[in-house]
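Researcher: I'd like a candidate sequence for this fold, 246 residues long. If you have to choose between options at a position, lean toward the conservative one.
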């Protein structure tokens, strides 16, 4: 199985480049695609950049240019749920594009959208299971002190649930409440996963999304995000990514 591995930022996955054997680097448009093997498993890694369009473009390229069999996204997210703490890890069971609103068209019974009416996408059981196994192994390894480069006090909880996607960095209680009002099932919010899920469904390719909570999507979100970004995020996300190829 060939995996298309995506991260929005260099800090989230780029260190994994050193693990790729038989590395070939391809340039298409503005992006570089790092192709090779990890532990005998085929992988193509790419940085998407922020936002739904960037994520969708990257996912489509991985499918059409490299014939990947599955898509995996790993990165950071803002919490929408009081039960989540900064550093906790969320494995998606569904991806919802919370900024798409077609409610005003509901009264037009004869108007049928060409593809999707509801922009929510379930994660296939197999893809979710593989992601969850990698995250669980990562946490087990943390307990066994196998990562000297990661703060030994870091012992995250694992959550399975809905992840919301929108083209906004949510940084206010008002913004959080607006999303929660319409989508109370969502655990966290980010800017790429739902777009990747839509592309994956269009092409019949499984996808999984793993998010590490970097902030509480409130007025302190920017500062929390920056602190988390420049502390442990690359070590955490890369270790989880490695475990996807064990």
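Model: Candidate sequence:
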């Amino acid at each position: 199985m060939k995996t298309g591995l995506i991260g929005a930022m260099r800090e989230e996955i780029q260190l994994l480049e050193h693990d790729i054997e038989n590395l070939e680097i391809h340039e298409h448009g503005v992006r570089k695609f790092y192709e090779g093997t990890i532990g005998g498993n085929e992988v193509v890694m790419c940085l998407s950049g922020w936002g739904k369009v960037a994520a969708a473009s990257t996912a489509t390229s991985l499918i059409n240019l490299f014939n990947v069999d599955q898509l995996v996204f790993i990165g950071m997210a803002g919490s929408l749920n009081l039960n989540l703490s900064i550093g906790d890890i969320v494995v998606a069971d569904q991806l919802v594009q919370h900024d798409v609103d077609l409610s005003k068209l509901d009264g037009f019974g004869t108007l049928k959208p060409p593809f999707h009416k509801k922009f929510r996408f379930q994660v296939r059981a197999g893809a979710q299971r593989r992601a969850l196994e990698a995250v669980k192994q990562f946490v087990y390894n943390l307990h066994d002190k196998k990562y000297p480069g990661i703060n030994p006090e870091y012992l995250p909880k694992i959550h399975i649930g809905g992840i919301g996607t929108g083209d906004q960095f949510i940084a206010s209680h008002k913004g959080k409440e607006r999303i929660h009002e319409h989508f109370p099932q969502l655990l966290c919010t980010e800017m790429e996963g739902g777009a990747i899920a839509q592309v994956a469904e269009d092409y019949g390719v499984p996808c999984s999304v793993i998010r590490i909570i970097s902030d509480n999507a409130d007025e302190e979100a920017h500062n929390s995000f920056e602190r988390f970004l420049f502390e442990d995020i690359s070590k955490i996300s890369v270790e989880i990514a490695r475990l996807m190829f064990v």
